[in-house]
Amino acid sequence: MTIDLKSSELALDSFDSRKRRSALLSLSAEAAANRISLPDAGHYLNLHAHTFFSYNPYGYSPSHFAWLARRAGLVAAGIVEFDVLDGLDEFHEAGQLLNLRTCVGVESRVFVPEFADSVINSPGEPGISYHMGIGFTTTKLPGPALAFMNNMRATAAGRNRELVERVNLFTDPVRLEYDVDVLPLTPSGNATERHICLAYALKAEATFQDIDELARFWSAKLDEGREAFDLPHGPQLQALIRAKTMKRGGIGYVKPEKGAFPEMSDMNRFVLDSGAIPALTWLDGTSAGEQAIAQLVTVAKQSGAAALNIIPDRNFTPGITDAKLQNLYDIVRLAEKEDLPISIGTEMNSPGLKFVDDLDSAELAPLLPVFLKGAFIFYAHSALQRKAGLGYLSEWATTSLPDKSARNEFYREVGKLISPSREHLLQNVSDTCRPGEILDMAGRS
Length: 445
What we know:
- This protein is an alpha/beta fold.
- It has 3 domains: 1-37, no CATH class; 38-141 and 274-386, Alpha-Beta Barrel (TIM Barrel); 151-245, no CATH class.
- It contains 17 helices and 7 strands.
- It has a 7-stranded mixed sheet.
- The longest helix is centred in the middle third of the chain and has 29 residues, at 143-171.
């Protein structure tokens, strides 16, 4: 009997992992029986989507994002979470069930000593940079890497609790209890500022049940007219709460001190120890730090960074050729020169962000080959790392393919030749294989 599609998709976002898995198994079985049509993979991709493990405005779990990506015909999909790997096993399993190329990343903020006096890509915070690791394949991390990740998680939770204490003074009588009001909004206790904003909006709604009282409360606290709010708890209100209380100038904001964030080199070491690829992230090329992008790339590479992350959609306005678009073209050109594979995506951690970049637009179409190459590289890295520890930065890779350009081409070709339904072709891969032998296994004609 055909399942109820809407109910099954809703179950994909249950905080109960057993219900999510059951729903995904049912959906994949329906697809296998051709009762749900899934398209062939096209050329669209999103390798940077946050799920409900680090905030997604639509409540998408890793399974739900994988299902939507497969239904949309994405050639590859990736999740990136703040400070945790909680969705890793679920997302990779979903990729195997749905024949979807997957990769998993971690994002955090780091301190870059060489740029201590320059804003990089965290607005208003000199020396602080968002930074990533791409291509994690297991949660069974070696001791030092596990300790680093646990510390990231604990430090983030500590910052959140202190932030709530400060903001409570401002929003009184609307006061949050972190364990009661914030943590239930997350499936595994990894709350972000966006969860906290939603919690304040919900608590105010419960406190002021009259809509006019609620409007007067927020107008007084946020110094904005009622028309600025999408009451009772819409995304505009949440964005204002975040901007006015948690960002620079707000009561909850504390200027980061040295030691508040790990150094870039420390995070790169954690990523490398975990068998993944450290990645510099790029915002839009307008900050003082990113205007010195060649120097920043050099600093990042010296401490282990081997890839770059870009959010294309925020870097152009359709139909307009401007400095912002030129900056995007310039960073892609530099990444190609430095042999840095590029990961792209829309983040999906704020209402209104697209599910996928418009890669057929006049502005992004010229960059599509580079973006596809990156997607195939990160997927091939993940597949080979899982199979035999032969990831992009493994000893095998750096010895067998010391030339970065040749290495990029090898992983690109492997990633293009295989997908999860063909990974069995690599069952005999080992560190005694030569690159050409692996390509032959993958089905090179």
